[in-house]
Amino acid sequence: MIAFSRISALKNCCFRSIQRASPFHSTVPAVDPLISLLNLLERSIETHSLKLSQQSHSRARRLGLTQHPLIAQKLIFSCCQFKRPFDARLVFDSLLVKNTHICNTLLSGYGKNELFVESLELFRDMAGSSILPLPDDFTFSVLFKIIGDSGEVLLGKMVHARSVKNALVLDTVVGNSLMSMYGRCGSFDDSLKLFDEMPFRNVSSWNALISGYVKVTIEDRDDSFYKYKLWDFVKGMQNEGLKFDAFTVSTLLSLCGGGAISDDSRKKCGHGRELHSYIVRNGLDMSSGLDSDVHLGCCLIDMYSKSGKVDVGRRVFDRLKRKNIFAWTAMINGYVHCAKFDDALFLFS
């Protein structure tokens, strides 16, 4: 009797094992609610759907996931993307624990929504509060960009001093952001000094310096000194073995337009043609995606049009793989600049 019971138990065990292994007895794996919610928030951002973002927030409340750092960060980011930074602040204030990534996300959102005062207040809270985490390298990079947008160079120097105290100014990304801030505020001596003191420089470092000099070259009437220095830096970048990227070329192209009458104007146009050849040889219009193709195309169209060679600009326009509103506007503006109003109206229609 005992032996029979053991045999029956063994049969039942084997049957259950076969049943579990059978493809006809498969179970659907449970979906992790956290991953599902993160995907919904990402989808709402990609599709620019405010309604889906609000529904995701409601679902996070029902599931009790509003305190999860990844969910909170995504919610803050989505609110700022939809131009609702004060809703993002409500999410931020509701968190019991706030890490550096969450603080940086809100700081970046304030900057994108041009909330300069709120950005500074959040930075002060991070720097002086015992509750919030201390600023890191990304915090300073974001804040330097915000200060560059505002043009408050004195405030930028104060934050610069704070980054030195935190031993973060030697970081290349922070240094590049700081150089860009000084360049946009018109303090080029400080930008150059910082550039010379950087222990390691990359392409973005040179771009920050070159764009600053391009800015003053365009705005300053007596710009012979800055023009000389600019092309000197361009040669220095090449001597260090660094190649231009799409940003470098588009920045330099803004200097190459001008009426093809004087020797200086012809020289500018010559530089522009050289940069155009560099784009083609190095595939800059292909390697950086379609957006780069359109942006560089617009810069070339503008350069050729200002040099009186709008027909060459039209050939650039016709060869663009994708034409957005900026490309069409650049070409129409080129025809208007060269007094070819019929062509401009035809292209507009």
From TrEMBL:
PPR repeat residue numbers: 99-133, 171-205, 293-327
Domain of life: Eukaryota
Keyword hit for Repeat: yes
Gene3D superfamilies given in the database record: Tetratricopeptide repeat domain (1.25.40.10)
Molecular-function GO term, any one: RNA binding
InterPro entries: PPR_At4g14850-like_plant, PPR_rpt, TPR-like_helical_dom_sf
Keywords: Repeat
Pfam family, one: PPR
GO biological process, one term: RNA modification
PANTHER family the UniProt entry points to: PENTATRICOPEPTIDE REPEAT-CONTAINING PROTEIN (PTHR47926)
Name of the molecule in the record: Pentatricopeptide repeat-containing protein
